[in-house]
Amino acid sequence: MKSTKIIYWAFTVLLSAFIVSGAILDILKGPDVVSFFKHLGYPEYFPRFIGLLKLLGIAAILTPGIPKIKEWAYAGLTFDVAGALSSHLLNGDPPTIWMPAFIGLVLVTGSYLFYRKKLKLSLKITE
């Protein structure tokens, strides 16, 4: 159980830092962010909208005791990074551009898998 918790928190802290840093840039919506989203074909209002949702998703994942909302938050973050990855790939972007989205997908997957494993182990202990 201890190693599962450590791995879960390692993935979750890295995921949180990754998502929050991107969300802040999206919300601030500097010229680089606007041109980046425009390149991908998204409207100008989209960065602030998705940035706020990313912050809410991480807040839900880090808040204890709300398993159903955590599931939805993981789903939303998965859609976000998978959508970003597919947008880059479909636009023909080089790996240096799409690799952060791939790393985000790895982080959200790892955090979610170890969240489920941790949850399953804690249920066995309480039985």
Strand and helix layout:
Blueprint: H1 2-28, H2 31-40, H3 46-62, H4 67-90, H5 95-126
Helix pairs in contact: 1-3, 1-5, 3-4, 4-5
Subcellular location: Membrane
Main location: membrane
Transmembrane segments: 7-25, 45-65, 72-91, 97-115
Task: Summarize this entry quickly.
The protein is mainly α.
Strand content is under 5%
**Unreliable sequence segments:** none
Distance between the termini: 15 Å
| Total helical elements | 5
Shape verdict: elongated
For the largest beta-sheet, the strand count, sense and barrel status come to: none
> What would the average pLDDT be, to the nearest integer?
94
How does the helix and strand content classify structurally? mainly alpha
H and E order: HHHHH
Total E-strand runs: 0
Q: How large, in whole angstroms, is the Cα Rg?
A: 16 Å
Percent in helix? over 70%
Question: In the residues, how many domains can be counted?
Answer: 1
